[in-house]
Amino acid sequence: MSSDTGSAKSADPHYEAFTAWSGQQGVRINGVQAAQISDRGSGIVAQRHIEAGEELVNVPTSTLLTEDSLPANLKSKFENLSIHGLLASFLASDYPQLKQYKEWAATWPTPNDFRECMPMLWPQSLRTRMHVRDSGKYACSMLPPAIGCGDWAHHSLVMFREAVGPGLLRKQEIKFQKDLETVQQVLPGISLESYRKDCLAMCPFADLFNHADEGCDVAFDDIDYTVTANRAYEPGEEVFVSYGSHSNDFLLVEYGFVLDSNRWDYVPIHDTLIPDILNHKSQRQKLDRVGYLGNYTLTSDGVCHRTQVAIRGLILDDKDFRRFVHGQENFDERDEAQANEFIATKVLQVYNWEAEEALQALKRVDDIGIQVQKGIMMKRWVQIRNMIQRAHRNYASLPI
Where in this chain does the record put each SET domain (predicted)? Predict the structure, then answer.
């Protein structure tokens, strides 16, 4: 879950029972407790003042639910199934060993929780393109480019999609379908509804920590898994860990949330550059030779270095381009101005238009059953628009 600002509610009986069960399994819990966090589900909060360096949670590896925990007759039925798929098939089955995890299972998200926050389970109405302008010239995708098919609405070229590959959501769906088909071959009674449990956590208590772009120190070895405070925390303050340096698009697809503040956030901007590159064989070869073909991104600070190289490949002659790549260029204000104009007008202005169109399209979605999903997508598109507009200030004197 996310690190959005929220408040902790009073202890839930399920959390109390789970905490007691965790202690019986050998989990040590120090100065923190599980709590229901408003607007986003479970979390961990400080019970008292905590100093930096205090060990907060210690989980013996023997309590982790892993492949080694599963019945041998279940594992023998699968050969090429991922670990997530294997664990999911166990959780969706009726093996008697599941009874020992009932206190843990009571804290897991419900199927409806997943339907609200996981794009893979969202209805088609949030995946289709909508015509916003009366002309109907452009159809706007409501899913951000990294999540959807990988392209923004103003470019749907087949060769572009082949160049950048499928978006995050499609990659997840391909893996999910492969695992599901494998499971159903062996356990035909398992349905798609039951198999959705493969998103569940497998580390008791410690996996109730929510994610932030900076969090507590986590360490593990053959003996235990520990969470140590990275700074001081006050009573009632939520305590976080970090799942890694992930963009908000990745977090939404894999975990079902976006952070309000994320220093690792970015958006892909391949499609403004790649069509021009693909249409010019010499440009494509030039960038490919130096290892700068594709993977262009934007943050609030501006475009990445790979993007700067690609733009120089489009506006400089071969000699000056080679000098730029090797850091030997003589600074030329005209080249710099030309590159900045390209970024401001051909990249950022186009993307800003796209974000505005997506927000307008989402406002027209009035299905009462998907208001939570709509709110998540509007939040993400506002983040993208704000990122674009902040970056634009680095390349143009006038606002978008």
Answer: 30-244
**pLDDT top residue among 141 and 3:** 141
Is residue 270's pLDDT more than 90?
no
Q: Which pTM was predicted?
A: 0.80
* Token duo for residue 272: 């403004």
Which domains does the chain possess? 13-64+203-255 (2.170.270.10), 141-168+265-392 (no CATH)
* Percentage above 90 pLDDT, the chain: 42
